[in-house]
Prior knowledge:
This protein is mostly helical.
Amino acid sequence: MKKALVVVAVFSLLFGAAYSGQIETVYKEGISLLQAENYDEAIEKFEQILSESRTHPLSDNAQYWLGECYYSKLQFARAKDEFLKVLDFPNSNKTPDAILKIGLCYKEMGEIELARYYLVQVISFYPDLSVARKGAEELKNLTDEK
Length: 146
């Protein structure tokens, strides 16, 4: 019985590492495609990651970059929806950036009050990060445009 458990444990470790490495490879491909402005193929890569695992350590980043792809394609409503999904990942390093981008999406869609709300959120909750400075600049621009 102990041998069977050891075999299962070793198999799980090896399979898990290979699977994780596969996701990392797809993630790197997606980033490269995004940087090359090949947004549709990058979207496919990030969606592949999210369909395979929403618990992998790179899943929240894949979700964020999916939003960036749509933002770059000027599809602001879809981008906003994808950035909102980043907020479903607990303790994501991409949360502050996603909140900023949600505000920018609303700005681009002409929904100024919602834009203002999210920009204030990023400034309030992440005052020491560069996204707060960017949020403050965007908020000032909204105020100046009025």
